[in-house]
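Per-record layout

source: Tardiphaga alba
name: histidine kinase
length: 477
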Amino acid sequence: MHNFLIKVGLRFEDPHDERRFMRSFVRGDLRFTQAAMVLGAIVYCAFAIWDWILDPVAWTTSFAIRGAVAGFVLLPLTALLFVPRAQRFAEWIYLIYCVVPGCVLSLIYLVIDRGFEHATAGMIIVILFVSTLLPLRLPSLMLFCISTWGVFITCESYATYLTEGLRFINNFEISFAYILSLYAVGAREFRARQQFRTAEALRIEKERSEASLVELRNTQGQLVQAEKLASLGQLVAGVAHEVSTPLGLALTTTTAMDGELSRLATTIQSGQVRRSELTQSIARMREGMKLLFDNHHRAADLVHSFKQVATDEADEERRSFDMCEWLCEIMSTLQPLLSRRGHQVSVHCEDGITADTYPGALAQVIRNLSLNAVIHGYPDRQIGEITIAVTRLDSARMRITVTDDGAGIDADDLPKVFDPFFTTRRDKGSTGLGLHIVFNLVVSTLKGQIDLASTPGDGTRVTLDLPLQPEALQPAA
């Protein structure tokens, strides 16, 4: 029987799944079922009116029996389902709730005069209630059918007043009611099991998808971090190269001045100091001091700018800053990297633009756009010009444009440039996250809009429309 139920889809092979299904099926709508059980008790007692019509003398006895069944069986069983521990035996409670009044109903028909001549309708109503309003499984309903039908046949055998052939008609009608109820309950249980299987499959697939999504996000986060570190590494290399030039000149000048100072000291110690030699030495030392000052000042400016950019990017807090001064600091760190490759960079900034936004995110955007133009706009080491312009759109918005005269972007690739991991230079080490990071920062952090226009062979133009304060405008793509 166990294997047969598994084959027809009325039982799960895994006991754990079977227990979980029973909990969901039997106790899924517990409050609705309790309401139906209360209604069933009321209807069971209300049919005493039918007994009164059939036998005005014996109806008080039948009513007392009905009331006793309702008061001592039906309602207590309904109340028992409020106890959490008793809910584990909910199906047995339902079965007792159905079997007791179904069996007692046959005894009531023995008490009432000519009761079995009208017994079919009452039995069918009980069967209808059990099969439609109570969440019984097919095996439990079969127990109900066997027990109640057995008691009905037994009690009916003691009825001596049945019309000829009525015994057969009663059992014929009741048997078909049982068959139909078994089919309805079996079909309902089968559909419920199919839905449970589907829900389980969806849950498992959802968990698998969520795990894959978490893994993908972790991987994407690592790649984004790697992209940021790579661009920062390029920035550090450019700044280090640029700083090494003034420091090298300062070291050379210091060495020359040390030699000049030694010669001057030797001349003074000899006592043969000529005015012309002293004047020339002072002039050379003055020139050397000027070179030292200029080169040290240049190195200090570069270090300050790099420190400011690093601080902005490490600090995610917003602050108010002048766009022109801020852009000069950013470009002073980018200029060494760009100029080392031979590119010309032009910066145009309208005076008086003060932004209250996130400088770290904006610096990341400018740097990614500039490096992206160098890497993708001039793939064969061509030399070009990159222009960065900042203008005020109105009192609440500004526009930043980054333009290059490089190779441009193919029309087929243009709709995909902001997609994560899309790149045309993966063989050169690109990850395809540079513009994706730009898009997310512009839309999510800076609450602005980004637009990219390009023609193959005629360069690329990226336009950023940003609010001077992030909460001033709603984000849009």
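summary: The two ends are 63 Å apart (CA to CA). The chain has a mean pLDDT of 81.
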